[in-house]
Design brief:
Blueprint lengths: L1 E5 L3 E5 L3 H16 L8 E4 L3 E5 L4 H8 L15 E5 L6 H8 L3 H10 L2 E6 L6 E4 L14 E4 L3 E5 L2 E4 L4 E3 L2 E5 L20 E6 L3
Parallel strand pairs: 5-13
Antiparallel strand pairs: 1-2, 2-4, 3-4, 6-7, 6-13, 8-11, 9-10, 9-12
Helix pairs in contact: 3-4
Length: about 200
């Protein structure tokens, strides 16, 4: 773990990998819920870092943080959000070839996994979900698409994601959902937030 000041009131904590970042994020949320944290305006996880913004004494907190015993990341007690999916993406056959299985087996493997939102970014409502074993990581497309439709279920590297709106993108598209990922009129606006457990449920054809 390495801590770096960001301005006068923020702290960036760098971890060895995504699992450690997720474990720290979960522990920060647990301590904040129990009242064991000093006031912090925002806790923002990323792939290997956690940003703490709005600290009154970031240097003091950094020293305290180095003494924490952080439990390994474990399953949340909250129920997983179920997202209905049509596994009809244009890259499904390509992913099957990369995994050396049939398209039907891609659906079975993907829908059997339980995912966790590791962090959010790229676009409002876009979550980077982990949960597939490392052997199922896939490369981005060599040539990104100029337009990916909203609701596209996609894979890139170790992550699964759902495009909340139409945008360019280079991820491998394996399915489609009608779930609304981002709705400013909803509270919270994002369907998927860091730490949320997610399952993708195949729709019957």
């Amino acid at each position: 773990m390495r801590t770096m000041p960001v301005g006068d009131r923020a702290l960036l904590v760098e971890l060895a990998d995504g699992d450690e970042a997720g474990a720290l994020h979960a522990e920060l949320l647990r301590r904040r819920a129990s009242g064991a944290l000093p006031p912090i305006r925002e806790i923002v996880p990323a792939a290997r870092t956690v940003l703490l913004d709005g600290l009154d004494r970031p240097g003091h907190f950094a020293r305290e943080l180095m003494e924490w015993e952080i439990p390994a990341l474990h399953a949340s007690v909250q129920d997983a959000i179920e997202v209905p999916v049509r596994y009809d993406g244009p890259d499904l056959a390509d992913v099957a070839a990369l995994w050396q299985v049939t398209a039907e087996e891609v659906v079975r493997i993907h829908s059997a996994a339980e995912f966790r939102v590791a962090f959010c970014g790229f676009a409002p409502g876009f979550g980077y979900l982990t949960g597939l074993p490392q052997q199922y990581a896939v490369p981005r497309r060599a040539t990104p698409r100029t337009s990916v439709p909203a609701g596209a279920l996609a894979l890139a590297g170790p992550y699964t994601g759902v495009y909340p709106r139409s945008s360019p993108g280079g991820w491998q598209l394996i399915g489609t959902t009608d779930a609304v990922l981002w709705d400013p009129a909803r509270e919270p606006a994002a369907l998927l937030s860091p730490g949320t457990r997610v399952r993708f449920v195949p729709e019957r054809r």
